[in-house]
Amino acid sequence: MSNTFRDYYKILGVEPGATAMIIKKAWRERVRVTHPDVKQGEAQEIYSFQEIQEAYETLSDPIKKEKYLQQRWLQQVYRSKPLAAPSDAYAILQAMIAFEKKVNRMDSYRLDTDFIKQTILFLLAPSSVALLNTANDTILNQQITDRYLQCLTKLPFGTQQELLKNICRLNDVTCQQKVKQYVASQQYRWASEKYQIALAAVVVALLCCLISWLA
């Protein structure tokens, strides 16, 4: 992925959320007029053959597409600054450190939990996990896990449980133990949140019954 963000949907001329069939059809139409063997010296198209190929290969591959959609979402949030994916294990650690600091500075009463979730998923996407497992640096993995878990404390229990599956992909015994310890330490909080939600639902139901009875 280059430093300049590319809107692959725009390159292929399709709407975000387009089906695989529509994406493939759009790709074929653009390849037909931009392929070097077909153009025969015609004027340069708006998008090059290479860009069209890159767009199609990304949007037609489930793993690449998932990572791209996260990057696209975050790009729309940051707008003024292209967001590059970490290229190696150390870069992942640096990105997690920077993001943890950003999360800790956020107002706890006005947290954008979706932003936190999507950024975490982007920084520790499957390709990043693969880089970490290949590097097999236990100390580095532990540091990343600590910061990852620290960011999770800001999120609702349901989102935390979803994101814990992500960090569990690290092939590191110590990191797995850290996750287990974290889960054990959060059990009371998660249970409290569940009961609060259930209690709120009961209160709403009772209020509805009362309003109906008074009417």
Percent helix: over 70%
Residue stretches low in confidence (pLDDT < 50, at least 5 long) are none
The tally of domains stands at 2
Rounded Rg:
23 Å
H/I helix tally: 11
What general outline do the C-alpha atoms trace? flat
Total strands: the figure is: 0
| Average predicted confidence as pLDDT | 80
Instruction: Please provide the ordered H/E string of secondary-structure elements.
Output: HHHHHHHHHHH
Rounded to the nearest angstrom, the distance between the terminal CA atoms is 61 Å
Describe the protein.
The protein has helices spanning 8-12, 20-34, 36-39, 49-59, 62-78, 89-105, 113-123, 126-135, 138-152, 157-167, 173-214. Helix 6 (89-105) packs parallel to helix 9 (138-152) and helix 9 (138-152) packs parallel to helix 11. Helix content is 73%, strand content 0%. The mean pLDDT is 80. It folds into 2 domains: 8-77, Helix Hairpins; 85-214. With 215 residues, the protein is mainly alpha-helical. The chain is flat and about 70 Å long.
